[in-house]
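Retry 2 of 3 after timeout on previous attempt. Resubmitting structure tokens to design endpoint.
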């Protein structure tokens, strides 16, 4: 029998959407072309509002809790802050995605089909949810107006031992060509994610050598790198950052990264995928996908704004040092910006004085 909803892609967005749709009584087929556990390049940090969204789905996952952020500027200035409410969590993507897919498969009304790529000729459904990631096949429809970020950034991620990291928060080290993210992972492993401007990716080397070159080039890590051992392969992704004009072109509704992916500098992608599953299911259950389209746009707005700000600022000589020094000197401002990231404040809630304090 044909389903009410065909969900294409069993990553975070597709599995979360399938759970919510199935719970509302819609008959769902969830297609995943790979078989879990499958590799996925990611910084693996879920912000507190993403952790809350996971709990609101009635789900729990044993990630590593983190209480805040630590920013390090190219010149070595450090600013630390705790999340305004709740804790974040670091997850192993391959296990987290497998867990969500399994939860979807166990949800009433959901038939989950691993190892099954989408075949347009095979399925008829009232709605198709395109949750097939950054390079969604549905972007070929010009109605979505998918546009990639002009910054042409790329990312690498892996896990290592032999690197001395801060174990209670996510650390972001800014450098001329991008940022390095360090976070506690399973056991003694550290998550390492490196984001680069395309022209700053270390050349002529394999991905492990690129990560090593980057880590060893950072003065702030000089005394923290021991004999580094890679415990998982280095995975790559790019180009990062994507906007869509519309998340709906009936019968297709986009979800997760396919519906617009803020640059990972905000660490927002997984939270956005989890937060938008409920609104998506409500909209399809009531036959009003346009309601989802506007909610999804609002949910992604702050992350897009923040990513633009951080990336524009960090590309200019000396600005990252000044901004991180200001965040260290004005912890209230750091908290305010984190609230903007979490959607608890809007960018317009920042005063001109706040913006001046940030850059002076
Ligand atoms: C380097 C890097 C660091 C990041 N760091 C963070 C971070 O710290 N925090 C954070 O929240 N986010 C981070 N992100 C973003 C985050 O990874 C994404 O936002 C998240 O994976 C989006 O989930 P998704 O389900 O939309 O897409 P995906 O996870 O990409 O899942 C899409 C799924 O669709 C499947 N698929 C594709 N085509 C088909 C098809 N034709 N048929 C069937 N199945 C198909 C794929 O196999 C895949 O499983 C980072 C991203 C990168 C690249």
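Retry 2 succeeded. Sequence:
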């Amino acid at each position: 029998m044909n389903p009410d909803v065909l969900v294409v892609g069993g990553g975070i967005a597709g599995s979360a959407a399938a759970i919510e749709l199935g719970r509302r009584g819609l008959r769902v087929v969830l297609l995943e072309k790979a078989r879990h556990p499958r590799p996925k390049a990611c910084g693996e940090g879920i912000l507190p509002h993403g952790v809350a969204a996971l709990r609101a789905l009635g789900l729990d996952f044993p990630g590593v809790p983190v209480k805040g952020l630590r920013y390090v500027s190219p010149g070595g200035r450090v600013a630390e802050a705790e999340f305004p409410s709740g804790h974040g969590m670091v997850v192993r993507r391959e296990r987290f995605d497998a867990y969500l897919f399994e939860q979807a498969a166990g949800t009433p009304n959901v038939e989950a089909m691993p190892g099954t790529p989408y075949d347009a000729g095979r399925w008829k459904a009232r709605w198709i949810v395109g949750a097939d990631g950054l390079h969604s096949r549905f972007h070929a429809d010009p109605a979505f107006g998918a546009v990639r970020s002009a910054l042409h950034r790329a990312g690498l991620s892996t896990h290592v031992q032999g690197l001395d990291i801060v174990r209670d928060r996510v650390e972001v080290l800014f450098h001329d060509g991008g940022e390095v993210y360090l976070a506690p992972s399973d056991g003694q492993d550290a998550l390492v994610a490196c984001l680069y401007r395309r022209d700053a990716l270390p050349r002529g080397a394999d991905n492990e050598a690129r990560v090593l070159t980057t880590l060893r080039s950072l003065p702030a890590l000089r005394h923290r790198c021991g004999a580094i051992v890679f415990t998982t392969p280095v995975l790559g992704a790019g180009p990062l950052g994507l906007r869509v004009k519309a998340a709906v072109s009936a019968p297709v509704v986009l979800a997760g990264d396919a519906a617009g992916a803020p640059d990972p500098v905000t660490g927002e992608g997984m939270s956005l995928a989890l937060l938008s599953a409920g609104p998506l299911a409500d909209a399809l259950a009531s036959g009003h996908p346009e309601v989802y389209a506007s909610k999804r746009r609002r949910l992604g707005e702050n992350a897009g704004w923040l990513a633009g700000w951080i990336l524009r600022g960090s590309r200019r000589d000396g600005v990252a040092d000044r901004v991180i020094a200001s965040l260290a000197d004005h912890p209230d401002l750091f908290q305010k910006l984190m609230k903007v990231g979490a959607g608890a404040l809007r960018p317009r809630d920042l005063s001109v004085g706040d913006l001046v304090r940030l850059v002076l």
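Attempt log closed. Residues 5-66+89-147+239-300 form a domain with the FAD/NAD(P)-binding domain fold (CATH 3.50.50.60).
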